[in-house]
Design brief:
This protein is α+β, with helices and mostly antiparallel strands. Helices cover about 30% and strands about 25% of the residues. It has 16 helices and 23 strands. Helix 15 packs antiparallel against helix 16 (about 460-475). It starts with a helix and ends with a strand.
Length: about 525
């Protein structure tokens, strides 16, 4: 009997093993670029945030419409002048190393984010945090050093994740910590081969019962648009992001594939260097806005899928206020008249910088044609992202900024008007401190942006941001273009993958049906 039992046991074990293999479900994703790191506190790009979101979670997050939802925090209260916030925390949550999620974990993470001596890429976003006090295992009180009405939205920024406090203690140096990403998310980190692949695997102790629905996730970079689409069509991958709009028909015509299309909060613009004499004249900047047909720009660059700009922030951002004065409808004759009034009846010569991505270069060539029609002679200079970063964001003295026009965009990752306006248009945000690459400055706009942070009252904040948007729209420190939709290409039987409005890719609800 014994030999028989041993054979049965072996057979049963083999059977279970094969069943396990048969049931394992892998999700393969092709992304437009490789990640830059695995520490969300020290990362600033959406590609990295997308991968990290499978590992880490935040106190508050956004739904598909960028509505703020409680996540590891269940709710909060604040005082009237927005300097104190009390957060209640979710119970029954553990980190992937077994450490319980509690108020001490929140304190350790918020203090790391707020510590300006750390030199982390996102420290400046949390410089308003003064103290974090543990009131109980499930409650923390955060005191700010200034009124900051956008604080809860800031906690929903993709960098505001909760690391395991055990891992933070074990690896105090960033160089070591970044190799051991450990959060409360649905997937555990397995490996990262730069330029090739990131592998994640299912976290069996995830607090949302029944999730995740896939066992392993493989994310690989593929910068070439057509290569990503070819990989999807051949079945090498299950999803690609973003799906380039000029290749959407290739996916739509394949019966095995589908397209996920969602509204974005990504605002594209043509930044205008107000440090240069001709562009310091608001009439010239307004002329540039009148010279560009935004609807045609959307067709040229994004197959017409998206919305033309109607303010300095996109409609899906909290406290958006539509602008109509000036209307900036396509009007080349108005543009010519403004240029003549500003002393440029014979036109002017400008340098336009753009990244070397296919869609960006195509859009820049369109801008050249549009501006040329009103007498603005444009030289387009494509450059890779490394050269762009050095020449655009590395400038220490505004007078040394070389560009006239820069084609780029901005994603408001907090979903709030503060992060849409302050980094791009406040005087305090001039490069290299932040992202005001137009070197725009208007004391009235600064005053309105600051006033909106002085209170947690939504009505007062909305009024202040409406005033800021009105001023900035009229001053035109950029040519406001619009917000293209986010597109994901995927297998038809794959659900739960999409791009959040801020451009992050979501796969935590992925499921093959």
């Amino acid at each position: 009997m014994k030999p028989f039992l041993r054979r049965s046991a072996v057979a049963l074990g083999l059977s279970l093993c094969l069943a396990g293999i048969a049931q394992a479900q892998d999700l393969r994703i092709s992304a437009y670029v490789d990640i830059t790191g695995l520490d969300p506190h020290d990362t600033s790009d959406n590609a990295s945030y997308s991968v990290q979101a499978g590992i880490f979670e935040r106190l508050f997050q956004f739904d598909s419409k960028m509505k703020l939802v409680p996540w590891l925090a269940t709710d909060y209260t604040s005082n009237e002048d927005a300097t104190e916030f009390t957060l209640n925390l979710r119970q029954g949550v553990s980190f992937q190393d077994g450490t319980p999620f509690d108020a001490e974990a929140v304190k350790a993470n918020l203090e790391r984010l707020a510590d300006q001596t750390k030199g982390l890429k996102r420290n400046s976003l949390y410089k308003m945090i003064k103290t974090v006090t543990v009131a109980s295992p499930t409650q923390v009180k955060v005191t700010l050093n200034q009124s900051f009405g956008a604080f809860i939205n800031t906690l929903a920024h993709p960098s505001a994740v909760m690391w395991s406090p055990t891992v933070l203690k074990q690896f105090p140096e960033e160089a070591q910590l970044r190799l051991h990403p450990t959060g409360t998310g649905p997937f555990k980190f397995v490996s990262w081969q730069p330029g090739k692949e990131v592998k994640l695997t299912k976290f069996d102790g995830y607090w949302q019962k029944g999730w995740p629905k896939v066992d392993n996730v493989f994310i690989s970079p593929s910068p070439e648009d057509s290569t990503r689409v070819a990989a999807l069509k051949s079945g090498q991958v299950d999803a690609i992001y973003p799906l380039p709009s000029d290749l959407i028909n290739t996916v739509q015509s394949d019966s095995k594939l589908a397209v996920q299309r969602d509204e974005s909060i990504y605002l594209y613009y043509l930044a205008i260097n107000t440090q240069h004499k001709s562009l310091a004249d608001v009439r010239v900047r307004q002329a540039i806005n009148y010279a560009i047909n935004r609807d045609i720009w959307l067709k040229v660059a994004y197959a017409g899928m998206g919305k033309p700009a109607t303010s300095a922030i996109p409609p899906a951002v909290q406290f958006y206020a539509k602008q109509s004065d000036p209307d900036y409808s396509y009007n080349p004759e108005k543009a010519k008249a403004l240029l003549k009034e500003a002393g440029f009846a014979n036109g002017l010569d400008l340098k336009l910088w753009v990244t070397n991505a296919t869609a960006s270069v195509r859009a820049a060539q369109f801008m050249k044609q549009q501006l040329g029609a009103v007498g603005i002679r444009v030289t387009v200079t494509p450059m890779d992202s490394g050269a762009r970063n050095a020449k655009l964001w590395g400038v220490k003295d505004p007078k040394q900024a070389e560009y006239d026009l820069y084609y780029g965009g901005w994603s408001t990752s907090t979903g709030d008007a503060d992060w849409a306006l302050r980094p791009l248009y406040a005087t305090e945000s001039w490069v290299p401190t932040s992202y005001n690459v137009s070197y725009y400055s208007n004391p009235e706009a600064d005053k309105a942006i600051a006033a909106a942070l002085q209170t947690a009252d939504p009505a007062k904040r909305a009024a202040a941001y409406a005033q800021a948007q009105k001023i900035i729209w009229k001053d035109a420190p950029v040519a406001f273009l619009g917000s293209p939709d986010n597109l994901v290409g995927k297998k038809k039987n794959l659900t739960g993958v999409s791009m959040l409005a801020d451009g992050s890719f979501l796969f935590d609800q992925a499921e093959f049906k």
